[in-house]
Amino acid sequence: MYSDHTILQAIGQLLIAFLFVATGLINASTKFKQHLDRMAAVGVPFAKFALIAGFAIQIIAGLLIAVDIQRAPAAAILIVFTILATAIFHQYWRVEEPLRRHLHVSYIFSNCGIIGGLLLLM
């Protein structure tokens, strides 16, 4: 585990893993209904199943990256997850308030950076 990594690569990998595991756990335990309502509002089919699957993907793939097992497939899965989650939750064009719209655009840019980090893990 991490034998071919520099210390900075290992820290970076653990931070990316932490992002997905912690977010998945927090959202699943404290924001389930909020996320479910937002998904239903934008017309996600089978929203409850999709949400539960999304949390499982975040946590399991994040743990795989943390322990450096199947890193490339886990990163690829999280790239797809991040793209889909961004498309569902950050529809800035639907937001009228300028500050909230700006925040959604910023989240999209942040998620592009996260995808970049995941590509480096592959």
Detailed description of the structure:
This protein has 122 residues and is mainly α. It has one domain. Helix content is 80%, strand content 0%. The chain has helices at 7-30, 32-41, 47-66, 71-89, 98-121.
How would the blueprint of this fold be written?
Layout: H1 7-30, H2 32-41, H3 47-66, H4 71-89, H5 98-121
Helix pairs in contact: 1-3, 3-4, 4-5
Give a short synopsis of this structure:
The chain is mainly α. The protein has helices at 7-30, 32-41, 47-66, 71-89, 98-121. The chain has one domain (7-121).
Which properties best describe this structure?
122 residues, mainly alpha, globular
Low-confidence stretches: none
- Total number of helical segments? 5
What is the percentage of strand-forming residues? under 5%
Counting structural domains, the number is 1
Taken from the alpha-carbon principal axes, the silhouette is globular
Tell me the helix content: over 70%
Distance between the termini: 15 Å
> Would you report the number of β strands?
0
Order of helices and strands: HHHHH
Average pLDDT rating: 96
- Label the structural class: mainly alpha
Radius of gyration: 15 Å
Give the biggest sheet.
none
